[in-house]
Each structure stands twice: as C-alpha cells, then as structure tokens.
Amino acid sequence: MTQMNMIQALNSAMDVMMARDASVVTMGEDVGYFGGVFRVTEGLQRKYGAHRVLDSPISEGGIVATAIGMSVNGLRPVAEIQFADYIYPAYDQIVSELARIRYRTGGEFNAPVTIRTPCGGGIRGGQTHSQSPEAVFAHVCGLKVVMPSNPYDAKGLLISSIEDDDPVIFFEPKRLYNGPFDGDPHKPAIGWSSHPKGDVPDGHYRVAIGSAEIVRPGKQVTVITYGTMVHVCIAAAESLGIDAEVIDIRTIVPLDEETITNSVKKTGRCVVAHEATRFAGFGAEILSIVQEECFWHLEAPIARVAGWDTPYPHAFEWEYFPGQTRVAAALKATMEAA
Amino acid sequence: MSAIRTRLHVPRQPARPGEKSDFSYVQISPAGAVARPDPNAALAQTHYLADEMVRVLGDDHRAVGPWDPHLAPSDLALALRHMLMTRLFDDRMHRAQRQGRITFYIKSTGEEAVSVAAGMALRPTDMTFPGYRNQGLQIVRGQKLVDLACQLLSNSRDMCKGRQLPVMYHSKEARLFSISGNLATQFPQAVGWAMAAAIKNEDNIAATWLGDGSTAEADFHYALLFAQIYRAPVILNVVNNQWAISTFQSFAGGELKSFAARGPGYGIPGIRVDGNDFLAVYAVTQWAAERARMGAGPTLIEHVTYRAAPHSTSDDPSRYRPKDDHESWPLGDPIERLKSHLIALGEWSEEREATLQKQCEEQVNAAWREAITHGTLTDGPRLDAGTMFEDVFKDMTPHLARQRQQLEAELAQQKKDAEKKDK
Predict the structure, then answer these.
(1) Are residues B62 and B124 in the same domain?
(2) What is the per-residue pLDDT across B164-186, written as a single tens digit (0 to 9) for each?
(3) How confident is the model at residue A188 (pLDDT cuts 50, 70, 90)?
(4) Mean pLDDT over all residues of chain A?
(5) What is residue B134's predicted lDDT score, i.e. its pLDDT?
(6) How many CB atoms lie within 10 A of CB B132?
(7) Which chain A residues contact residue B191 at CB under 8 A?
(8) Same domain for B220 and B172?
(9) Which of A277, B145, B237, B302 has the smallest number of CB atoms closer than 10 Å to its CB?
(10) pLDDT tens across A245-276, in order?
C-alpha cells in the first residue's frame, strides 16, 4: 500500500497495465513528453517509449478514430481527451462507431478502447472546462461509463476498463484529483493522505465495472450519487445528523441497480445527487428505476440534487455547484415529508 | 427565377437535366505521359502527380508508359472476371430491390476498376476499410456471393445478424472492415490500424476508400493529418465519381483544385489517376503500397471516375443530371477498356467474354437462389428476435437480459392474441 492521490493512482494503473500488456498504448494531447496537463501520464513515455505513449495533435475526433483503428488491429488504446468539454468533436466516432462495432458486425470485430477524460467543475474552469457529460454517453447503447470518486477506485476501475473488451468512457472528477472535496471552497484543501481510499496497492487489482459501493451505511435515507458529489453528500448528511446510507454508484453503465433498490427498500427515502445539469440528467434514470422498483416502500417523494440547467458560469461557480446547502435542503425535505 | 448577383459563389454543375452533357472540366493527361517517381521519392518530387492524371491504357487499347504494371494475361483475365462479377451481382441485386425482396441497394456500375484493381494490388494480409461502393473488394477478397446476398436479405445467415442496412458487409478473415452507414468514419480508423501495424513493427498496410462528397467531413482531415504526422503505412483513396447524391463534386470543394491536391497540403503525395483504367489504378496502388511498406508514409489517391448508377435505390439521377450523362463520360467504361486491351493483346475474344458473362450470371443466380432459402425479410427462416440484445456488450448486462425477457413475453402475448382471434 502506498499513499496516492487520484492522479498518482491513475498513473499507477497505466503503469501496471503497460508493464503487463504490450498491447496497451496511450495517446492524447500533451500526454507524452509532458506527461499530461493533469500529470496522469507522467513518466510513462520515458518508461515505455514514444511509440506507446503518443503525443497527439489537437484533434479529438482523430484521436478516437485512430484509437478505434488501433484496437481493431489488436492494441488496447487508452485515449485521453484533455477535458470532457473537448470530447464533442469525437462524438460521432464514439456514438456511431466505437459503441457499435461489436454489434454491427455480429460480434466479429470489437473495439476495446478506453477513453479517459477529466470532468466536473470546482476548479474555476468556466463553461468550457467544467462539464459533466456522463448522461450524454449513458444514453448510447454499447458504451460502458465509469466515474470513480477516490484513488483506490480510480486505479481499480481504470485497470478493469483497460482489460474490458468493450469500450469504456472513463470520467475523472478533476476536483478530486488532489483530495476529497466536501463542497466548501472556503475551507483549506485537504489531500488524500487522511482518507482511507488514499491507500492504494502498488500492483495490479481490479474494482469491478458495474458494482456500486455503500460508502456510508445508514438507516434513514438512501443517497445515490457519484463522483465529486459523494463527498459533498456524506458531509451534508453528517452535518445534519441524518443517518444516511450513501451509495457511490461508481459505474453509470452498467448500473448496479440491485444495491440501489435494496437500500431504498430498507430506508424508504431517497435522494439522488450529481453535479451535472438536472434536466434529463442521469439522476432522472436513477429516479425512474427507484420509482418502478421501490414505489411501495417509499415514504416520501424522491428528491433530486443537481447543477442548474445553465452552462457552468465562471463568476458564479459556487452558486452553480450543488454544494452542501442544496443537498441538505433535499435531505431535510425528504426526511420531513410524511 | 431571377438571377441574383452577389459575391457569393454557388457552384453550378456543368449540365442539368435536359441540357447537353459537358465534361470539358475534366483534365485528362495522355496515356503514358506522366512520369513515375521512385516510391521513396521526396514529397516535392511528387507534386505534379496531384494535377496530372496517371493513365496506362491508350485509345488504341495498348498499355503504355512508365506506370504499366506489366501484368500477366491470366491476371488481366481474372481482373475482368472480378469486375464483370461485380457488375452482374450489382445488376441482379438492384433488380431484387426493385422486386421488393431487399430494402435497399447501392450499385458500383462504372467504378468497378477502382475496387478490383486496388484489391488485386494489395496483399491479402493488408487491411481494408471500404466504403459502401467498394463491392469489388468484397469479390476480390473471396467473400462468397451467397454470404453477400444473405447480408442483403438480413436473413438467418446474415453476417450482421440482421442489424445493418444492405451492403454494410464485413469479414474479419478476409480483412474487410465493417462498412459504416455514416460517411468517412473509416478513413481515420484505417490510419489508426496502420499506426498499430507500425507500432507492432508488422509489414501489413491499410487501405481505405471514400467518395468525393465525403471528403467534406472532418474525418477526412483527421485521416490526412494523423497519417502524415505518424507516417502511417496507409493508402487513402478518394473515389471521385463526380456526384454525392444530387450535389456535384464542386460542392465538396473540387471546383478549382483536384482532391488529390489535398495530399501535398498535408505533406502527403497525392496522385490523380484515371479510375476507369484498371492498369493505372493497379499501378498507383502498387506504388503507394510499396511506399507505405518501406516506411515512407501514406499516399492519397484520387480515382477519377463516374457514378453511372444512381447513388442508391432511393434516388432518381434523371432528376439532377442529364439522363444519358454517363454516355459522354470521357474516360469510358472500365470493363470495356480492359476487355479491349485483352483483345488487343490477342488474349481474349467476344466469344470468351460471352461465355464468362454467362458463367458469372449463373453463379450470381445460384447464390441468390441459395441465399433466399435462408430467409428474406418477409418469408422463411429468421433469427430469433431476442438476438438483438446480443453483442451490445460482450456479456449481456442484467438490464438487457430483462428487456429480452420482456420482449419474449410481448411476443408470446401477441401469439396468444392471434390464436384467440383465429378461434
């Protein structure tokens, strides 16, 4: 075990996989010599060479398209899209190609590409460096969609993603790279060293894609969330003194519905929280599943906490961000109903 | 309609329906006139190839000049067979669509040399990323006609398991990548495949095709950009058949500059070739393959040809171009030209041609008859509808398994309701 922040954990996952499997390559803007703008690929080019750790032109569509071609030729490319906000030029290649190559060829071809991309706000990134577009990919058949909330899961899930024979969109909440974040930007930043999930095994291990984790067991209300909001929700519940069961879904597709519905059947109350915009956000899908599967167990309407349905404004970042106040209001309303 | 004069230039095609065809815009070099540089030549020594037109077959049907690949007559006869088979298969399947047996078809009439010559010039281990009008490649690479027909029928033996529109074939074994209905996406994918071959230090190269219209997509730019940066061992083919659907190639930016000339702008040799000249297409493919294999990088080839057929079974070309336009196309017909060459060599005759034609027709008809025994969209054996849930992922997810059960219940209910109605 080593103390790692999320960047080091992701770097370790890449290192472990590149050492184990010569077919693993990585490519993206600034990932080679420089080691990535967030340093996730630091040192890899020196260790594995410029042929396996490729600097790419500023061309997200080209990065994903060539990664697809490489995967068809037996490699396991890990493509980095520098910010999730930049992923849209590659959208056609992801949706119409990557996601469907196995399907449209009756299983004859497949494209095991992992696309890593930093997402989310809270870093003064304005509307072009703060988005959380996971719902846009969750809606596409044939893609697995992953978003870890801590270093341990980040490494284990990235290893699972690279080993997976299906394409994976791997979102990295960049506000969590250097430490857990409870939603209060005025408190001094804390690192991962004081967090149990900052203890990361040095070697190979997996966290299974498709399995949620109960990160805080509780009895009164189930909070279903992922990414940065995991930490915000725990803090909000604890400051209110509510015994919330907080579930980090970790994988958006395929979704671990069983863990979610078992918990809501137990608590009878449910709050769904994510940083992405609310309307048609992934929370709506979770809410719908809970309604269908747990209706007769519910004692209160299901509440939803999300970013507002506006672009992420630079000057009003913290008014936009669904911080503890917004989570607490939803928790209180859910607890007070009926 | 009043003519509005502004600085905005809207390209006009040379002839609209009812007007006389005009192909004076097609710049044609005499056969044998264009020099052949060494495949390892520096970019600057290849610039003229993007503006001239590489041609081997002269008006006297003789092969001339430095690009003559000197193929054996038996290879030429095989090429003729592949091209004829492609055309007859197209004709039969087009008819099947008109008879309502298949939903959609795309012919490659007039463009057969583009696919067949390239297919023959590549090694079987080279990977291909075809477009939807490269059926000649499927034939050269040994795809069985019956398998192609089963795909067109979306039947119980369809390689795509009923999931793709007709003509979107693939074969892992024959190294034919899956054809996408979205345009140009295969172009940068082929570059990625070639980059992987180079990373693995393997000898194989990739080749890919798209139409003049599709060069307008960003994917075309990605492909040229990545191919040049990493010197990917890939051949990038633009099949300029003059037409997208109703828009002329000038709407893809071909009015003032050839598509081949896009290559040098990226640092890639561009070759403009007579796409209806089998020998010329073979020769430039061979040149580009040699260049790629020696590590000198990619080549962009523009095949100048004419789409004699409609874009697909869904459009009527007489609505947007003169009905007999194809008859005045200055580069003739690729099958006629190769046949005349073989006859000029004393290696072929009209009788042999007639026999070959009959053989090919019989093979196509036999394949079609066999294919329909495996079902059509409306009759005969079908795959279980539940198979639609397979291959979304390698292992079916629980939510897809539930949807499959739901569909099964729905179908069982429909069956029950129908039985009730019958009583």
Answers:
(1) yes
(2) 999 999 999 999 999 999 999 99
(3) very high
(4) 97
(5) 98
(6) 22
(7) 65-66, 69
(8) yes
(9) A277
(10) 999 999 999 999 999 999 999 999 999 999 99
Per CATH, the number for A2-200 is 3.40.50.970
Residues 134-163 of B with CB under 8 A from A: 158-161, 163
Q: Is the pLDDT of residue B127 over 60?
A: yes
Residue B3 pLDDT: 64
Instruction: Sheet with A303-307: list strands edge to edge.
Output: A213-216, A244-248, A221-225, A270-277, A303-307
Q: Which of B193, B201, B219, B229 to mutate to test the interface with A (most CBs of A within 10 A)?
A: B193
For residue B397, being part of any structural domain is answered with: yes
What gap in Å lies between CA B356 and CA A12, rounded to an integer? 63
| B406 within domain boundaries | yes
In a domain, B204, yes or no: yes
Statement to judge: residues B241 and B361 lie in one domain: yes
Nearest CA in chain B to A54: B230
Examine the domain organization and report whether B394 and B294 are in the same domain. Answer: no
B359: Cα within 13 Å, side-chain hemisphere: 10
**Cross-chain CB nearest to B199 (options A65, A68, A75):** A75
- What's the CATH number where B78 sits? 3.40.50.970
β-pair type (B270-274, B299-304): parallel
Contact: A69, B393; criterion CB under 8 Å: no
H helices of B230-379, where?
262-266, 278-293, 334-344, 350-373
The rounded distance, in Å, linking the Cα atoms of B406 and B307 is: 46
Whether B413 and B351 map to the same domain: the answer is no
The 3-state DSSP class for residue B302 equals strand
Is B125 in the same domain as B47?
yes
Same fold? A2-200, A213-336: yes
Which of the listed residues B336, B351, B373 is the one where a domain comes to its end? Answer: B373
In a domain, B17, yes or no: no
- How far apart are alpha carbons B55 and B205 in whole angstroms? 24
Domain of residue B389: give its range: 385-422
The token pair at B30 is 């005499």
Residues in chain A: 338
